[in-house]
Write a structure and sequence with these properties.
single chain; 233 residues; alpha+beta; five-stranded mixed sheet; 5 strands; 30% helix; elongated; N_methyl_site; methylation; transmembrane; transmembrane helix; Pre_pil_HX9DG_C
Length: 233
């Protein structure tokens, strides 16, 4: 009877010291795991961003095939916009009228135009997308844009970039031109410690090339004429 009574008695609860030890262990595990989880999430976002750029690059290729090998215009914030802009982003225009829209989806899915790591609220203009196109390829010369046949080494020439949220202001990446005032730079949001857009030497971003493929490249490479000048061998 005594043994049964003893077994049926109430077990003592945890002491305060034991609870504090458990809480401390949990906090330590969280502090160890959070950076790894953050890196894994960012790696997933980078992959999704790269997939977006591949899709956009293929859409440009199909557009050019249907339009005598000419690229669409760069959506450079011209008053009222131009019908042949690759993306119609101004409030008064419909995204579905973007020249590459028929080659992506109907209706146009705006998420294809956004990097999942891009904090859109940090954009300083009405342009709420993450990607912009190389002005040197989509610029207007003699009332026409460049043709695909004019681009030398298309697998090396940047067509679309993931631009920094600190500098993106329209659909046109034109750091080399007066239009860009030397300030349009590709993003380093996937290397968060280097997002400072005034540092042209550090950080990496996703870009799509003229042959349709996409890569994760260094910011410094984007300033090399071998990659941004379509007429350079």
């Amino acid at each position: 009877m005594r043994n049964q009574a003893k077994r049926g008695g109430r077990r003592p609860g945890f002491t305060l010291v034991e609870l504090l030890v458990v809480i401390g262990i949990i906090a330590l595990l969280i502090s160890i795991l959070l950076p790894s989880l953050s890196r894994a999430r960012e790696a997933g976002n980078r992959t999704k961003c790269l997939s977006n750029l591949r899709q956009l690059g293929m859409a440009f290729t199909m557009y050019c095939n249907d339009n005598k090998q000419q690229y669409p215009r760069p959506a450079g914030g011209v008053a009222g916009g131009l019908p042949e802009d690759w993306v119609h982003w101004e409030a008064a225009r419909k995204l579905e009228d973007s020249r590459i829209a028929p080659y992506i989806s109907r209706p146009m899915n705006p998420e294809v135009l956004r990097c999942p790591s891009d904090t859109l609220e940090s954009h300083k203009t009405a342009y709420k997308y993450s990607y912009s196109v190389n002005f040197n390829i989509c610029r207007i010369s003699g009332n026409k844009t460049l043709k695909t046949t004019q681009v030398r080494s298309p697998s090396d020439k940047i067509l679309i970039v993931e631009e920094s949220s600190e500098t993106v202001d329209d659909g046109c990446w034109a750091w080399q031109a007066e239009l860009g005032r030397g300030k349009n730079v590709i993003s380093a949001r996937h290397d968060r410690q280097y997002e400072d857009s005034t540092d042209f030497t550090k950080g990496r971003a996703n870009v799509a090339f003229c042959d349709g493929h996409a890569e994760f490249i260094s910011r410094s490479d984007s300033f090399d004429a071998r990659y941004w000048d379509p007429l350079k061998n």
